[in-house]
Amino acid sequence: MKFVAHLLVFISTILFSNSAYTAEMKLAVTTSFNNSGLSDVLIPEIKKDLGLDVQLLVVGTGQALKLGRAGDVDAILVHSKKAEEEFVSDGFSTHRREIMYNDFVIIGPSSDPAKISNSTTTVEALGKIAKHKSIFTSRGDDSGTHRKEKSLWKAAGKDPERFEATWYRAVGAGMGATLNTASGMNAYLMSDRASWLKFGNKGELKLLFSGDPVLFNQYAYLPINPLKHSHVKIDHAKTLETWLTSKKTQKMIGAYTVNGETLFTPNAIKKVN
Fold first, then answer.
1. Which CATH superfamily includes the segment(s) 2-101+217-266?
2. Among 3-12, 127-136, 141-150, which range has the highest average pLDDT?
C-alpha cells in the first residue's frame, strides 16, 4: 500500500509539473527587435502577467514569414508591411496588428567619404555611396531591413544585384552581425535605430543620415490562422496580442530607452485586415 501511495504521489507530481508548463507558445521575431533588448524586458512581464512562456525564434522577416506559412510558430512579429499584407491575403493570418514603430538610419565611417551627411533625401544619400563606391554592408538575408534597403536602392535608380562585390558586401546575416561587419570594415550600412543605439561595438561608425519619412519602420503582430494550421495555439496568440496592445504594455514599450534615447514609439490600433 505504501508503494501504491508513493506511486500516486509521484504521478500526481509529474502531472502537476507538466500542467504548470502547458501555457507556452512560439513567436517568430526579427533580429532587429531582439537586438534592441526590448524582448528582455517584455518576456518576463508576459510570464508574470499571463503565466505564458513565449519561446522566441529570432530570424529575419522573410524567414519568420516562412515559419508562419509552415505553421511552425503561433504568431510572428515583423516589419515589412507589403509582405505582411500578402501573408494575410493568402490566409496565413486573420489580420495584422500594428504594435510600435521606429525608423531606419544610415550609418557610416565618421570621416564620411561619400559625404552623405548633408543629403536631403535617402535616395540622394544612397546615390552618393554608389557613385563613390564606398564599402557598404547589406544584410542580404531577405529580412525586413534588407527588403527596405533594396526598395530604397530601386527608388534611387540602382540595382544592388548589379553592384560590384568590391564595395557592396552582402553579409547574409542578422542586424547584429551586419553591424559588427560594418564596424570591422568601417563601412556604410542601413540599420534600424534601435539596433544601432543598442550596438556596443561602434568603432569609427556614426549615424550620418536619418529623418526622411521613407525610413519609417512599422512593427506588426500577426497570429497564425488556425484554419491553415489547426495545431497552432490561437488562444495564446490572442492573449498575447491583447497584452501587447494594452495601455500598460504600450506605455512600457514607450518608456524603454538606451542611454536616454527612446527606441520604439507605441502605436497599437485596432485590428488591420
1. Periplasmic binding protein-like II (3.40.190.10)
2. 127-136
